[in-house]
Amino acid sequence: MPTLLRSLLLTTALTAAALPVQADGAWSGNASLASHYRFRGIDQTWGRPALQAGLDWNHADGWYAGIWGSNVSRRSYPGGSVELDLYGGFNGRIDDDWSYTFGVYGYAYPGANLRHARCPSAAFEAPCGALDGQRYETVEINAGASWRWLSYKLSLAATDYFGASTRSGYGGSTRGTRYHDFGATVPLHDALSLSLHVGLTDLPQRYGAHKADYVDWRLAVGGSFEGGWTASIGVVGASNDRLYRPPGGGLSATDGARRALNRNALVVQVGRTF
Q: pTM here?
């Protein structure tokens, strides 16, 4: 088992061990089907559907832990086809209006490694044959606060950011990458709500000659319905065409495919909690 993946599993185990084991802790699960998977505005499945599922543990005192997974495209993660997330933390309230959160979030991509990228591939500026081993696992620590229907969360990368390093064409380590997540959720009629999200990915290094920072956004309507069913429909997109849109960006790591990975797109999701 890769060292970093072992570290993620150990982190989750230690987090779970630290949680108070009491009868009022509750387990819940979820499963959903999405038209495609966008992470921070970027297409992870190259326009194909995503099957996603998770398991969560929540305690009445505010502690939580969980695991979540989704399929991803080998064109973005050569050698891998699954994203597996492990997380834990604490949610608390100050009063009826203010709440806060902090935690640790780990992303794992079993089998994915830059060494599986096929040459020739325009996805990397390194010459054919010069690609070295580089995994995509990432650990972030996060903290945030919300007031009524407004929220903000900051996530800070404790590792290189999803394989972004000198081995993959960046100017140096991307440890310390910050993700600013601004959100608003406005209740609508009955069980429906309108959600607006704007995010800023702030990387400390360039990719070759290009800045890697970008902004993403999402506007969606969703809700929970009888029987545990959930559904949402929204528009998602991101900036930085140089990295994520052909001809210079949005290029596959495993073949000659090209796709505008950041373009505005409609994402439909249907799921169920249990």
A: 0.88
